[in-house]
Amino acid sequence: MNAPPVIVIGNGITGITFARNFRKKSSKPILIISKETPYFFSRTAIMYVYMGHLRWEDTQPYENTFWEKNKLDLLQGTVTHINPKEKNIRLSDESILSYDSLIIATGSIPNKFGWPGENLRGVQGLYSKQDLDSLEDYSASTNKAVIVGGGLIGVELAEMLHSRGKKVIFLVRENSFWNNVLPKGESELINQHILEHGIDLRLNTNLSEIIEDKTGRVKAIRTDSGEIISCQFVGLTVGVRPNIDFINNTDIATNRGILVNKYLETNQSSIYAIGDCSEQQEPQTGRRSIEAVWYTGRMMGETLAQTLTGNKKTYNPGHWFNSAKFFDIEYQTYGLVAPQPTKPEKHFHWKHPNKNVAITLSYNENTKQFLGINTFGIRMRHELLNKILCEKKSVFYMIEQLANCNFDSEFFKTYEEKILLKFNQDFNTNIKLKKKSWKVIFNNIIS
Amino acid sequence: MKLLQKIGLGIFLIGLSLFCSLVLLGKYKLNPKEFQRVIYAKGIKSELFINSLNTSLVGKEFSEPFSFSLHIITAVKEANKIHKKNREWGKVIWDKPHSLSHDVAKIAGKGIVKENKFLFWLLTFGLGILGSLLYILPNLILLGPPGIKNNGIYFSSSTNRGFLGWFVFLFLVTFYIVLYFFPDYIVNWTYIVDPISQSISGNLASQWFLYGFLYCVVMIVMAIRMYIKYRNNMHQILRTTSVLFFQIVFAFLIPEILVRFDKPWYDFKNAFPLDYDFFFSWNLNSLISSGGFGIFILVWGIVLTLVIVPVMVYFFGKRWYCSWVCGCGGLAETLGGGGNWNVGWFTVFYSFL
Predict the structure, then answer these.
(1) Radius of gyration of chain A from its Cα atoms, rounded to whole angstroms
(2) What is the per-residue pLDDT across B204-258, written as a single tens digit (0 to 9) for each?
(3) What is the pTM (predicted TM-score) of this model?
(4) Which residue from A61, A95, A70 is spatially nearest to A20, judged by alpha carbons?
(5) Where are the domains of chain A?
(6) What architecture is domain A6-109+241-307?
(7) Which helix (H) or strand (E) element contains residue B61?
(8) Per residue in A225-241, pLDDT tens?
(9) Under 8 Å CB-to-CB from A224, ≥6 apart: which residues?
(10) Which of A51, A138, B28, B306 could disulfide-link B62, Cβ–Cβ 3.0 to 4.6 Å?
(11) Chain A residues with CB-CB distance to B under 8 A?
């Protein structure tokens, strides 16, 4: 009988990154199981399928022949149970598969908070291929849509529906969009931009109830102020949680997610959990125990592939970074920028008087150490910023290096001089911008 | 705004239909004097050809170009067949039959189009440009704030290989076949750009002048569309300006002006092997016999192919030529307009390697 394979549950960025990196160093059999789609796709791109920028096949980063060529076996099926003692799993068709190691990378599922009517037809989150398909199904019969929850997926869904000519009402619990993450000035910039696109943004508004018509489909919602808003579609985008319901009756220890140590090991031998579904028992300082983003999933996949091919490694995500897009405004963040800085963190903020371009630098008030940066409408060079953060450079050094850190396309307008002017006024300094130098950039990236 | 676009589309389609129907307007009548001029200018020595046309064509009036052309083609073929059989090489007519027919038709064409060149320019090019602009300019408002504007590309019949896409494909293929192989059918199109050609090169317009002029007009109008689409992106705005500049100045104006000064027609940015006949013997002979300027073109063409293109590609990749200089890339990224990146044949292609 053949040796049991390494089984990966989930073919998202995390599971696939693990499998690819594992395959580079080992010829052991690998089986990747997904209930969602036959092939890996780029989850962050599904909005562009709905908007008509891409076809579904364009979201698949690898040719369909890639998997067989690299001996990565794919199986579309649903895992219903895990038996750590026997080292096997059961699928929904009752078949039993043995594993050599088991990697759980099942990602997230959209949150629901027990609202009346949350399971009606026309009410859904936006996460999976199935969500995209059902959104497409409801789309033709939707003129007016309500989105609940002011986060990254909420604003994406608003853009998607808006692009197909739907009237969008966007309910946000907070008094400004995403202000539990973004500092005040930036959050207000995004409020304005959402309104500019013709979205009916309702701040300080909660959902109370979803009302059904005779056919079991949503026909309206009621807000906490009692207002009834008629609609044919409701998008619930109030965050995600680890997708671990199927292992609740096993011995694998869980909290909100599957608990893992710094080697990404669960409490059961030969079982690992990576990506959105995992929860770090001892997260690095300044990092959360569950981080449901693309980049961390990828890093966990890379780390575990090293460990399982004989080079045992701890999960070390380094400095936080992320990127997103709010309609036409690109957003990037590196390091830590608190929404409301508490001592000793302090912020320097610059915003273009009439364009959607802004930047926030956070630093330590006492030591002047640079702590992090948010940019809107300016792209930054990740390697260089990561290096500046690792070397604990001062905010003065950072501002001086602004031109070298810029990663916009050639010929884009730059704003470094204007930013520096305000910085020098605020800090009463006379810092001069270091000219963009490819030598400095390449030296720093390579070293 | 949407209404304005619909009106614009309507005006454009009227202009396009008029342009197509020009082919069937007017009359063709070659009088004996004009025929003498053709025989002289072309150096035709075949009495068979001359006699044949004197009976079948000269002095007769034709209401469409096809039968007019057919008489000339038949006369050339039959005369050549006999001359070749009799080994009378000096009498064989070496011109391509449809090119000769084009030159004759250009002289023989009469009537409404030739007499109202400016009016018909307005009714075809003019309406086309006006309609297109009415369709394009409202996008300034309709597309919303500056940003990435690819919404619905894969839902549209024209941009996702739907009915409209195939229709345009067939239309363009037909246009190119007529342009390259049956120029004698479209002399009416060349009449309406005669005044422009005369003001630049001093000559009447050939089908190639018409093509170059049309190419420039299409690129300018559609570049306006791209300027609106790419409002958020200085890189794309400069790139669009660059391809536009190279098309209008290098591919269109400079070669035509060179002709005015009796120099060879040459597009200085057109590198071999794109300029596939650059090293053909007739081209080399013509360059060498054109004196210092011809030699300069010859040296420039070689340096462009062997030094400039490889060096630039080393530093910038092929994009510097395809998307910043080349006329083909220019048309693709203005008339076409981005979005259709994925050919999807790579697996098939690689399986042959």
Answers:
(1) 24
(2) 999 999 999 999 999 999 999 999 999 999 999 999 999 999 999 999 999 999 9
(3) 0.91
(4) A70
(5) 6-109+241-307, 123-238, 322-446
(6) 3-Layer(bba) Sandwich (3.50)
(7) strand B61-62
(8) 999 999 999 999 999 99
(9) A205, A206, A207, A208
(10) B28
(11) 48, 51-55, 57-58, 63, 65, 163, 193, 196-198, 327-328, 409-413
